[in-house]
């Protein structure tokens, strides 16, 4: 069966694996990746066309053809990312607002997906149009989770983050971290609702599609169950570097946040608080991993709120 061997993994993936919490596990996975790809192609009778590059930071994506010639995309998850959870969420959405899952082998981290236009995301649109389409796309994903689901709650997910933030934060960022932790505690103490969330929703996670269902479909969920404001919080800071360079950036951010909240009927205060918490958490995480510039940018953004 044709394959893409010898495989040259995209550098974005290789760099991300350098910061993996279990370096030895990541190194073994990367070494075994050509064999895993070969085995998966053979299992589903797929013909590989090319590796998507630059691709993602948590998976290898290969454009393939199914036995009948239909175009598809094969996604191989790196260790510490959950193919089973992504597959479960995509199966539950069943193509409604998201890419359709065609088949899965969670034990191998392998997902077979319908092919979208991976090179064209909402980030290719003008800001106002991108935000309008993003709001439309994420609205379709917010449905009740299936009975007996195994998705992690926002409360549990952020509890682990909160513990890490307490351990990581140094004196310079401690006041901002303490505020973010206080906001999180109040939010999870009185949850507003419980729906299935994308978990990492942003403009770059919505791709152009010609499936006939929608011109834009979400990909790459890190599914959680919780309130919609949590899902919107990542979107508020989209195109952050462009935002930082704009005149009156704090006011622009607050207007963006208010418009998103109102258009999607989400409480403004809760959206602001989740946005601040998620920005601080991400900023501290970047600082710890050596990404000082991005970390400081995120913390400055959090200060605007």
UniProtKB/TrEMBL annotation:
Record-annotated membrane-spanning stretches: none
Gene Ontology molecular function: kinase activity; phosphotransferase activity, alcohol group as acceptor
Keywords tagged on the record: Kinase, Transferase
Superkingdom to which the source organism belongs: Bacteria
Pfam families assigned: APH_6_hur
One GO process term, biological-process aspect: secondary metabolic process
Protein name per the record: Kinase
Annotated organism of origin: Streptomyces armeniacus
